[in-house]
Amino acid sequence: MVADGSCRIRLRRQYSIDRQFLHARRGQLEVALFVLSLVHDRLAVWCYNASMTSRTAFERLVHEALDTLPQPLLDRLDNVAVVVESQPTWEQRRKMRLRPGHTLLGLYEGIPRTVRDQGYNLVLPDKISIFQEPILAMCRTEEEVRQAVQRVVLHELAHHFGLSDDHLRAIDAY
Q: What is the pLDDT of residues 57-66, one digit of tens each?
């Protein structure tokens, strides 16, 4: 974070001379800060235990989290794919309006079951992305990773069933 913060200060000083120039360069600054945040996230991941950084081990944790769900809930999952990705894409970060230095642990993209109607057919599956590197960056032990994956999977499944972030906060599910 120190590297990200110091670079941000340096970039602001460099472009603070002319406000119009700053406005014109805003997109480039956002990209630069995004890249710096990715570098910071990657450094944190590289410092983590190498046994958990393998994609296969992480996918196994996601499958375990799904296997712990009660059967009635699993039976109600409809047209949804759960995937593991390294990091959120630039487009996903932009769509979620994330500031530089912030990231996503998971993302639900699709039509919640509560919104679907009779015209819902022949559509691509909803997608739940679980982001490996941000989760590994925030955890220090394998047990913390397991708990974080469980929490993120449940959170994103709640979106599939129509619960918003506001509703999840209201029921203290965070």
A: 999 999 999 9
Q: Are strands 106-109 and 126-131 parallel, antiparallel or unpaired?
A: antiparallel
> What does the pLDDT look like over 114-159, one tens digit per residue?
877 787 777 788 899 999 999 999 998 999 999 999 999 999 998 8
Q: How many CB atoms lie within 10 A of CB 12?
A: 11
User: SS3 letters for 14-56?
Assistant: HHCCCHHHHHHCHHHHHHHHHHHHHHHHHHHHHCCCHHHCCHH
Nearest CA among 83, 95, 72, 77 for reference residue 160: 77
Give CA–CA dist 170/144, Å, rounded. Answer: 25
CATH 3.30.300.20 fits 50-170, yes or no: no
CA 39, 41, 45, 47 dihedral sign is: positive
- Global pTM? 0.67
